[in-house]
Design a protein that fits this description.
The protein is of the alpha/beta class. It has one domain: Spore Coat Polysaccharide Biosynthesis Protein SpsA, Chain A (Alpha-Beta Complex). The strands form three sheets. The protein has a seven-stranded mixed beta sheet, sandwiched between helices.
Length: 273
Amino acid sequence: MLNSFSLVGTHELKEETLFCIISIRRLYPDVPVLVFTDKTSKEYLEKRVSNVVFDLFCEPSNLKILEEQYSSVSVANRFHRVDCIAAKMYCIRKAVELFDDTMFVDSDIVFLDKIDEDLRSDVVLSPHYHGDNRTGQCDKYGVYNAGYVYTDNIDTGNVWDTIYKERSSFFEQQGMIHFHEYMDTYNFDRTHNIGFWRCRVYYKTFPVHHGPYLDVPDGLFDGAKSLHVHMTKFYEARADSGLTAVYDQWMAECDKVIKKEAKGLIEKWEKVK
């Protein structure tokens, strides 16, 4: 039985954090949610959701310390933040300490269905199931997605922290394959954590448009239990024009699925997106 959810939600992401929690609450009204956040976000969230455990780990002063401590990690772009990524490992460790297990997610995950039957002991990871150039994508970005991890192992946060610092070329994600060396790992199937990376990306220059464009496979959302919506660009303008174009298209696809599969979320979704 799943005992907790956990996530990191700083002030830039407080709206998407809220929607993630709302999607959890729709399915799990009584399961605690641990949120590593800052004071501003806590004040915003606690007025709108209940049964949430807040930890002010992400106050600016602490994030500044983390940024300095993790200054040696590989930085592949200016979109991701090394300090907030580091907070994920502490968040997972704290959640397992408090609740014995946790489903850790990025703040832009939207749950559509319960996930209990897919949880196994130690660690369950979410393969990208890349839709295009699998070898190249896995080499660059990793086999597994860093925004969707279940664990009941108290060592998971520490193991991931070591991987992040020492063994990963794309932030904390590319090195997640090394989890296999430390503990038993299992995979979530394709109904989980459905993201834009499962689509083929192509470029079009005729007659007047240019890419990138997403080619969404038939049946991609069949039986979907969770979506990786990637709302971040709306709250922190770090994405380049190509990534922004992909996000816009992916948001439109997720919009259709949420309206069809999670009617109780529609009103709140319209406000957040």
